[in-house]
Amino acid sequence: MVSKLFYKIAKFAVGELAQNPELQAKAGKIVKERLVPGAKAGWEKAKPKLEKAKVIAVSTTKQVAEVARDNNPIEDPKSFLSEASQRLRDRTKR
Fold first, then answer.
1. How many domains, in total, are found in the chain?
2. 63: Cβ–Cβ under 8 A, 6 or more apart, which residues?
3. C-alpha angle 83/88/89, rounded to 5°?
4. Taking 80 as the threshold, does the pLDDT of residue 92 lie above it?
5. What is the DSSP secondary-structure string of 65-85?
6. To bridge 84 with a disulfide, which of 6, 41, 67, 69 should be the other Cys (CB 3.0-4.6 Å)?
């Protein structure tokens, strides 16, 4: 019910915006002055965390691949999971 109301309001607003050049200019100004700077600031704040997450994901993948070379996950899944989880726990302790 509420989502239909918001949908109708948004549809009406977009229709008005599409037909009114004055509203288009105001909307463009608001986007440039408020939304773009906020989005850029948010990206700059999130970027280091994303880079760190990428490094951790690559490192984790390499460690799991190394464990898979030592302990075949198909032949001995219990040993593979045990060794992989132990290495990952040890890494987080450092």
1. 1
2. 84, 87, 88, 91
3. 100
4. no
5. HHHHHHS-TTT-HHHHHHHHH
6. 67
